[in-house]
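Please annotate this fold before class:
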Amino acid sequence: MPGRNGKGPPWWHGKFRGCGYRLTIPRETIIEVLSKAAKHLSAEEIYLAVHKVYPAIGLTTIYRTLELLVQIGLVFKFDFGDGRARYELAEGPKGIRQHHHLVCTNCGRVIDYTDFIDEAKEFLSQTMKALNKKCNFKITNHLIQFYGLCEKCQK
């Protein structure tokens, strides 16, 4: 299957096979759906999108595959407090896309925040270095979620 540029497989093929798992049609279709998603999708939303392309798939396969993808680090699983797990790819073709989440506690809107100021980058870097030293723990990634009210809900 050609990649997005028409030359070779998509960027995630090697990462998936490097973990020792077969690349099945359901797994590949789920990753493709997540790679095209403009928001954080629930398992049910992923199922509905995959079912259009691969009608034989069941919801149980979606759940099992998502858990595997989370386990091998290709997908992040989030709890934004709405009672449903949400998923997104851990990285894209250009590597890890570092971002934080702003979660509205009123309407449930989730905003990906990527416009980091230099002070915030430095603070996070210093915090991770200090935790590494104090706890002898090598941090490889982090997740930050801020909860509050979005602009619309503040009115």
Q: What stands out?
A: The chain has two domains: 1-90, 98-155. The helical segments are 12-18, 25-36, 43-53, 59-71, 118-135, 151-154. The domain at 1-90 is CATH 1.10.10.10 (Arc Repressor Mutant, subunit A).
